[in-house]
Every structure is written in structure tokens, then in C-alpha cells.
Amino acid sequence: MEFIFLIVPVSSIVALGFAVILIFYILKKPEGGPLLVRIAEAVREGARGYIRRQYTVVSIFFGIVFGVLLVLAVLRLVPPPVPFAFLTGGFFSGLAGFIGLSVSTRASARTAYAAKRSLNASLRIAFSSGMVMGLVVVGLALLDLSIWYTLLNWIYKAKPLSEKIEIITSTMLNFGMGASFQALFARVGGGIFTKAADVGADLVGKVEKGIPEDDPRNPAVIADNVGDNVGDVAGMGADLYESYADSIIATMALAVAAGLGLKGVLLPMAIAGAGLFSSIIGYFFVHTKEEATQSALIWALRRGIYGASFLVAILSIPVVYFVIGRENMGVYLSILCGLSAGVIIGFFTEYFTSDTYPPTRAISASSATGPATVILEGLSVGMLSSVPVVITVVLAIIGSFLFAGGGVNFNMGLYGVGIAAVGMLSTLGITLATDAYGPVADNAGGNAQMSGQPPIVRERTDALDALGNTTAATGKGFAIGSAALTALALLVAYRNEILLRGKSIEIVITNPRLLAGIFIGSMLVFWFCALIIKAIGRAAQSIVMEVRRQWKEIPGLREGKRKPEYEKAVVICTRSAQREMILPAISSMIAPIVTGILLGVEGVLGLLAGAITTGFAMAIFMANSGGAWDNAKKYIEKGNYGGKGTEAHKATVVGDTVGDPLKDAAGPSLNILIKMMSMVSIVFLGLVLAVSIFR
Amino acid sequence: MEFIFLIVPVSSIVALGFAVILIFYILKKPEGGPLLVRIAEAVREGARGYIRRQYTVVSIFFGIVFGVLLVLAVLRLVPPPVPFAFLTGGFFSGLAGFIGLSVSTRASARTAYAAKRSLNASLRIAFSSGMVMGLVVVGLALLDLSIWYTLLNWIYKAKPLSEKIEIITSTMLNFGMGASFQALFARVGGGIFTKAADVGADLVGKVEKGIPEDDPRNPAVIADNVGDNVGDVAGMGADLYESYADSIIATMALAVAAGLGLKGVLLPMAIAGAGLFSSIIGYFFVHTKEEATQSALIWALRRGIYGASFLVAILSIPVVYFVIGRENMGVYLSILCGLSAGVIIGFFTEYFTSDTYPPTRAISASSATGPATVILEGLSVGMLSSVPVVITVVLAIIGSFLFAGGGVNFNMGLYGVGIAAVGMLSTLGITLATDAYGPVADNAGGNAQMSGQPPIVRERTDALDALGNTTAATGKGFAIGSAALTALALLVAYRNEILLRGKSIEIVITNPRLLAGIFIGSMLVFWFCALIIKAIGRAAQSIVMEVRRQWKEIPGLREGKRKPEYEKAVVICTRSAQREMILPAISSMIAPIVTGILLGVEGVLGLLAGAITTGFAMAIFMANSGGAWDNAKKYIEKGNYGGKGTEAHKATVVGDTVGDPLKDAAGPSLNILIKMMSMVSIVFLGLVLAVSIFR
Fold this sequence. Notes:
By secondary structure, the first copy, chain A, is an all-alpha fold. The first copy, chain A, is built from 19 helices and no strands. Chain A has one domain. In chain A, α7 runs parallel beside α15 (about 455-500), α15 packs parallel to α18 and α17 (about 565-635) packs across α19. Chain A is globular. The mean pLDDT of chain A is about 90.
């Protein structure tokens, strides 16, 4: 039986190998004329600068937490391998982000240049770049898993099988925290960076007449491009690395309680392997004709995702049958619940944020009465959009629970919920690709415009960029949906860990400590969003100052005779992002610990439940309000309601500016908050049990 | 022992008697010159029209639900008196709203006229009008309670005491639903009405140049004034009537489970009585000097509230000692927890929404970069404000639980939570007065302006109006805080009801059905807000149309030679409000029933917990964002950042317009949602248990 585990290292090698092939494929392509290269180089430079500084800060943070974990390990409050697994998790997640960013910043000029030749060639480059990110995330996560699983098997080889499995899964459950921290910095820091640049570049036109937003003379414009890569490639990658790894280890831990033993531990790994192969095959479905309409382009990507999903759905039948046997085939339906929930969430996201449907058009229409009605309409669209998405996830939870046999064996049902998360994330290789494709296309469009390419190039890159906006919205829906399911699996695994330690707990919903925890968890969602929105506001103000300074002090800049000091704006964004990270990072880390100490583990379980549920609805609201505002503005720019430059357009620009921090920073950061707090709760369980007032 | 119950009818008579005295005191005052009278008459006319139509719709709704309840009573799925108690609760709550509205619309012109003579005289009239609302709510709620308690005692007089108590409290627990429905229509309908008029009047200036917002030529101006009374007097009154009644009956039910028996049942009633007397004495503390500053005026009202709170805190010592004995004195501290939480929430609300503190000033400052930054800053201020308020309530919950002895006797602790809600609401007579005072002062200011009173009058009514804005914000904080505590008490009582029926339930937090319920509860908060914001947008658009029509079709209106048809705008608002009510009303009613059928009572408990926690944080966020935007605009109107008419001012006007529906309609409607769903869950428990899939 145990040989099934070999799927994991093999999948890892295949994923990384295929990523290397794609990297060579991309780098072989010409980068284009000198101007294109120069702009791309500036973005690359900025991204490198950001990542260098970010990883410095992250290293310090990791050093401190590593020290704390070492102490806890010595005190036997965490299993001894945890501090080291914390480091490897962080390292691999960081490495994935670094590789993804290096490739995406090299792909954008090549995408723009290839557009001279053909739309399909251009699409292939941008999509391949996204695919590298997807493959590297999956490959490195599985590599980390392989190494530790093998190592722990070797360490505990003397123990009897069932005991060994219990120790290994319980130990590995603690391993997600490294990836959590990396995700926190990448997603939240990246989000603040990108929106500070974006909002700052946007606002400066308000206070200083004549500085256009997308113009090489605007010193913030490179920072804005850097931000796209930093936030949507590296940030999104780290976010989903965490979900991917956590969903697998949580399900492994749940397998033991469900009484499935080794078979149940191996299944999530096998499903991950099946998903990876499906993703790679799906990659080859993505291509387009030369004269493609927007919807044909969307279908080019959809073919990839739907193809991979369909394939993994088929492959999972023999996998489940072979690994956990005919008597547990209900688990297969649990996997389908997760898979289809991912697809359905994507559909609803598109409905609420694309300008081909009524909700976004209603926002455009509301611009007739000014910015206030645009904001109100957008708020209500976003809030409304959370309804079908939450219902979808609820159905997936209940369905996966019941199909796995939760009606008879409660823990078996919970295992079903975990495996649903694994199922949803199994095709991550390609879903992340469609997501990380966006910034490449976006940058390609920006480069094409700034370097004055011929109209056909701009037309093609614009088409790819528009496609990127759609996939960005659906990608966010997928990210939060999977984060919610993963966090839920972690919550359940957390409760099992408590029971494993022989602690009796009173976790009924009417326990005031648990209820108090739910209140606090809900509230933390608001706290986190407030911090991040504030941070972006402050950082954007510094960008405005800097742009004004440069326009005042650099002679010839206004006339386009001299280049602005792009790197200064990048540095400001980087510094702001890193500084503003500290409070959210610390609060999401200490909240579960302090709650545990003051209200006991019952309070922590409440906290997690409150944060997951409120955070989920809030994240969807923010992502979709923001996406809808963005597209409502674009819809007017297409010439509706008077088009660009009218009062109606200005009103939707306000909506877009409000939506930017919500959809790209505050909203996605909630994915991190809910997973991070679950992970911290698990790792610091020993400490909390030792020092809590309610023991 | 049982004679303690007599406090209730006596308090009721005293409250109603004192209200009658105040009504005579107000009506004795002169209403002023013919113009003042005419404007006041128009507002009164509009309010009457609204209330007539609302009560017609409400009657139909009550008829239907009464029929349903009768069927359930025949099927023995609810106790037989429930259908009738449903009617009396609705009737008394409606009557309270009617009386409050009749008085407030008669007090505003008198307040304006008295301002000619003296600030103190003016304050006394406006505050007395608010006090009538407070007294009538408390008086009628206690009257309803007295009648039913006496009646049930008589019906079950043959039963042994402990059994009788159990039947009575368990039956009376079902009695809150009438007040719930009335509150739903008054608060949500009133909220939609008032904001449709307000936002519509505001927007019309955007599309039609030259129609000023506060001008007798604007046909929506009377509807706007009517709205203030309808939303903030009748709506707020019905909202708090429900909280007041529900907190008492929930605590009575919890007393039985706590093993306190009759003593525990009598205590909440006795505390309510002590609170009423304290409120009346507090009334006499409210007066001011002639040359009062703004802060002196605020202190005039605070003296009343703080005085009453202090008094009830003192009075409760002998009451608790005498009613439930020395061994239970911890319960006294639970009462203090509730009382002080109410006061602390008021303080935080003021901090986040008053322009004398940094948060609101930061919003004003952000106007330099346009409306988008005003919106973002306001969102983050509101979200941040939920943090200390939630922590306050959490401390109150945990404190009241532990002080009452929850560490030893779990049910005793839960009784403590219930009695904390009763404590918080005990001074409702006067806290509601400071709240319902606001619209009177607001209308007085409007009347003074429209009738062209001398500057000294305007100065004084402006000062009273500004004070009203502050109390409106703190009143909202109090309303949502008490709603959360009350809903929590109902949630716990609901669980006891389930156990009483001998049903075994699995209400641990890891039960997926319960978790799914939390997801749905959280989501319903977003759904509810989205519906209401959308509804206001639609209604405001109809107002815009109507105003434009009148300006086009009525000759001489533009020049002020002819009066607009005010009543048409009132009718549009009324119709919209009633029509838009239906979906929120139905969804908050059927959500717990459908959830119960599909996910069992475990799902319902999750639903309630999710809705209460998310709804609480969301309601605070919305109320305080809105309040802060409002005052940030006013701060600029005082001459800061360039003052009225500048771009900065326009930016904050956008903030104010966005905030209006959030703070006065969507936010407060969440109070109703969470209480209503708890109440519906209790009443339809029998039905759900009979037909649920998970029995």
C-alpha cells in the first residue's frame, strides 16, 4: 500500500520538470525592441528590489518565530521537528514566489512582442508564464511534503503502523505555519504595495493637474506594474501554496480520526498527484484562433480548467477505489463536491463582475446620479454576490460530509469535508496559471502602450488584458473558496488534536466562551480590513507626495525630456508595505494565542469559526464589489453612458479607486487571516493548554 | 414572594401616567406663528399618511401569521396562547410607535417657537417629547407582560408551582414575535422611507441644476422631515420595545433552567421596575443654562442617562438581595456588566463619530484627494470602531456569565448573560428619550429655517440639532449592543426549549450542519444589507423623477410662487418602503424555518450565532462609518478645509450620501434581523422538530 506515496515525489518532479521546460520555452522567445526591454527591465528591477527587501524582513520574522518554536520544542509543547518544518515550508513557499515573479517579469515584454506576430503566440507565452507559477507552487509543496513524510517515517520506523501514522500526521499538521507566514507577507505586503502604487498614481492626478495615470512621465507607473506582479503572481501563489499544503495535511490528520488509517492518509496525496497530471494535460487545451472574440478567448482558458477538472474527476474514480476501497466510494462524491464548488464559484464571480451581466451594468447606469450612487450600487452588488457563493460552499460542506458517510460515522464525514478541499485544489496547477497569467498580460498591455507599439499589437494585448481581468476575478473567488474549506478542515483537525491530548472540552455553541470567540473572530475580520485599507491610504499619500516632488524638482520631466526616478516610488511602496505589514501580522498571530489563554480552547474554536464564516462572506463581497466597479468603469470607457471624460465616467473612476484596495488587498488578505489563525492555533495548542486560565 | 410581580403593573401605570403628564405639558405650549404651524402640519399629515398605510400592510401580515399560528396551535406545535399574544405584542408595540410619532410631530414646532424665548425651554420640550416615547415603550411593554403573566397564572393555577413556572415562562418566551414583526416594519420600512426621501432630495440637485436640498421649493423636503420621525422615533421605538420585552422574557425562561425558580423569574421584572423609576428621576436632571456650549448641552443629556444608570445600579443592590437572596449576589455584578457595557458603547461611538476626535477629522482631511479617499477612510474608521465595541460586549458576556456563577453552574451563568441584557435595557425610558429627542430637534431646526425665524432661534435650534446628531449615533450603538445581548439570551433560551422537549442535539462547533448554519447566518447579514441598500437606491430614483416632474409641470414652483405637492413625495416614499419591505420581511422569517427543516435545529443554532456575531460587527461598522461621514461633512461646513462649496466639501457630501442608507437603514435593520430570527426560531421550533430532515 505504502508505495502509493511515491506518487507524491514523482508528481513533484514532473511538475518542476515541466516548469523548467516552460521556462526555457519562454526565455527562448525574443524580448523585443530596446524600449520594450528597457521598460521590462525597470519593472524587473523594481520587483527584485521589492522581493529582496521583503525576504529580508521575512527572514528576521522567521528567525524570531523559529526561536520561539525551538523553545516550545524543548519544553515539549510542540513536536521536535516543527521548528525545522516551519523553515522549510517558508523556504519553499518563498522560492515558489521568487521563481514565479522572475518568470512573469520576463514574460511580459515577450508577450507584447509576440503579439506583433500572432494572438495565439502571445497568449501561449503569457499563459505559460502563469503555468510556471502554478507548477512550481504544486511541485514545491509536494516536494516539502515528500521530504518530511519520508523523514518522519524513517524516524518513527520502530513504532507500530497505526501509532506511527498518528504521530506523523499529528506532527505534519503543524507544518503549515511556515507557508502561512510567507503567504501573509506575500499576500498582505504585496497587496499593500500594489494598491499603494495604483491608488497613489490615480490620486496624484486629482491634486496636481496634468499628471496622467498611465504615462511614462508619472514616476509611480513602474511601481504600479511591479505591484501587479508582486501582488497577483507572488502573493496569489503564496496564498494558494498555503491552501494546497494545508488542505492535504489537514485531511491526512482527519484520516486517522475517521479510522481510515494509512489508506486515508495516502488518498489526499494520490488525489493531488492525479490533479497535477490533469492540470498538465489541461495546459495543452489552451490555445486560440487569430481572430478570436473576447468570449472565444475566455473559452480558451476555460477549456484548460474544465478539461483538467473533468479529467481529475474521471481519474479520481480508480484512485479512490484503489486507495480506500469500494466500501468508501462515497468519498469520491465528496471530492466531486469540492471540485464542482470551485467551478460554480467561478461562474458566480463572473456573473457579478463581468460587464456582460446585469449587476455590473447597473453600476454603470447608476453613474448618472454621481459617485455616491455608484458606491452604493457597488456595495449592494458585492454583498448580494456573497449569497450564492456561500450557499455553494455550504452545499459542498454538507454534501461532502454526508457522502463520505458522516450520517453514520461523524469523523468519516469530517474527512469528507477535508477531501473536498483537496479536490477543489487538485487542479491548482492550471487554475493558478489562469490567475498568474493576468499580470503578465496586464504588463504586456502597459509595455505596448508605453513603448508605442503599432495598433494591432495594442489591440491584441488589450484583448489579453481584458481576459486577465475576468480570470483575476474568478481566481479570487477560487482562492477564497478554497481558503474557507481549508480553514474549516484545519478547524476540525484542531479539535481532534485537542481530544488526542486527552483534554475534555465543552464546545457546544451555547458556551459563552465559545460564543465570545465567535464575536472576536468576526470582529477580527473588520479589524484586519480596516488596518489594510488605512495602510494603503497612508502609503498612497506618500506616493502622491513623491510624484509631486519629482514633478517640481526634476527639470524637463513635465515635458517628457527626462525620465522620472521610478525606483524612488518603488522603494516607497516597498517600505510602506513592509512597515504596514507588522500590525496585521502580529495581530493575526497573537489573536488565537491570547484568546486561548483568556477564553480557553473553546474560545479559540469560536474565534476560528467566526473568522472563517464572516471572513468568507466579507472577502467575496470585497472582491466582487471591487471587480464590478472596475468593469463598470471599463464599460463606460467602451463608450457607454457618454464614455471617457464625462461626469458618468468620473463617478465610476471613484468606484474603481474605492474598489482597488478592497478587491486586491483587504479582501484577499482575509484568506490569509483565516488560514493563519487556524494554523497558529494548532501549533500553539500545547502552549495554550499549558497556560490558559480555562484549562 | 409573588407580590414582587406587582412592581410590573405599578411601573407600567407610573410610566404611562407620567407620559400623559408630559404630553399635556408639551401640548400646553404654543405652537408658534402660522408658517411654523403650517410646516408642522404638513409633516404631521405625512407621518399620519405613512403610519396609516404601514399599519394597513402590517395588519394584513399579522392576519396571515396569526392564521398560521392558529393552525400550529391546533396542531399543538405552539402553546395555545401564542397566536393571541402575537397580536397583543404587535398591537402594543404599534400603539407605542403611534403615540411617540403623534407627540414628536407636535413637539417640533413648539420646540422651535420656544427657542425664541430660551434654550432651556426649547430643550425641555424636545427632550420631553423623546421621554414620552421612552415611557410609552416601557409602559406598554410592561403592561403586555403584566396582563399575560396574570392570565397564565390564572389559567395554570391548579398546577404545582415549579411546573407552573416552567409552563408560563416557556409559553411567554414565544410572545416576542408580535413585537418583532412590528419592529421589522417600523425599523426597516421606516429606514427605507427616511433614506429614500433624504438621498432622493440630495441626488436631485445632481441631475437638475438649481434644486437645493433644504428648500421649501424641493417637493421632497417634507418627506425628508417625515422620515426623521418615522425612522428615528417610531422605528427606534419599535426596535427597542422588542429588545426590552425579549430580554425580560428570555431571562425569565433562563431562570427555570438555572434552578432559580420563581425568584429568578421575578428578578428581571423587578430590575425593569427599578430602571423605570431611575429613568423618571433622571429626566429631571436634564436642563441647561442659557449660554450653553455644545459640550455643556451634551452633558445636560448625559446627566440624565448617567444619573439614571447610577441610580439603578444602587437600587439593584437591595432588589437582587431581596429577590434572589444573598447567595446569588453575583447576579448583581452581571447586571452591572450590562449597564456599564451600554455606557461604554456610547462612549466609543462618540469617539468614532464626533468631529472633536481624530477619526472623523481624518475623514475630513482625506477630502483633499477627492471622494474615493473619503469613502476609504470612512470605511476603515467604521470597521475599526467595531473592535472596541465588540470587545466591550464580549467582556460583558464573559463577565456576566462568570459573576453569576457560570464557572460552577453553567445555566446560572447563562441566566447572568440574560440579566445583563435586562440591566443594559433597564434605563430604556431615558436612553430612548435622548434618542427620540433627535428628530424633534432636527425638525425644529428645519422648521425654523423654512419659516425664516430670527437668527437667535436658528442658533439655538442648530445647537439642539447638533446635539441630536451625537445622541443619534450613541443611540444606535446602544440599540445594536442591546439587540446583540438580547438575541444571545434568546439563542440560549432556544437551546433550553429544545432540551425541554427531550430532543438530544449535537451542537458542538465541529458539527458541519452547525458550521453550515454559521456560514448562512453570516451571509444573511450581507443579503439583508444588500436588499435594503438596493431598495433605497430604487426608491430614491423615483423621488428624483417625481421632483423633476413637479419642477417641470408646476408653473411658478421654480420661482417660489407656488407650493410643491409635498404629499406626492410622501406617498412615493411610503409605497416604496412598504413594497421593498416584503422581501426582507419574508426572508428573515423563513430563513430559520428553512434552515431548520434542511439542517435541523443544530443548523438553526449556527444560523443564529453567525447572524448575531456578524450582524453585530457589521451594524456597528455601518452606523459609525455613516455617522463619521456625516460629521466629517459638517466639520468642513464649519469652515475647515475651505468650507462649504469647495471640492473638499463635495467629496464629503459623497461620503455623507453613501453613509445615510448604511447608518439609518441597513445597519439598524440588522438589530431586527438578529432578534427576529431568534424569535421565529423559538416560535416555530415545534414545526421544525416535526418536519425537519434531521430530527
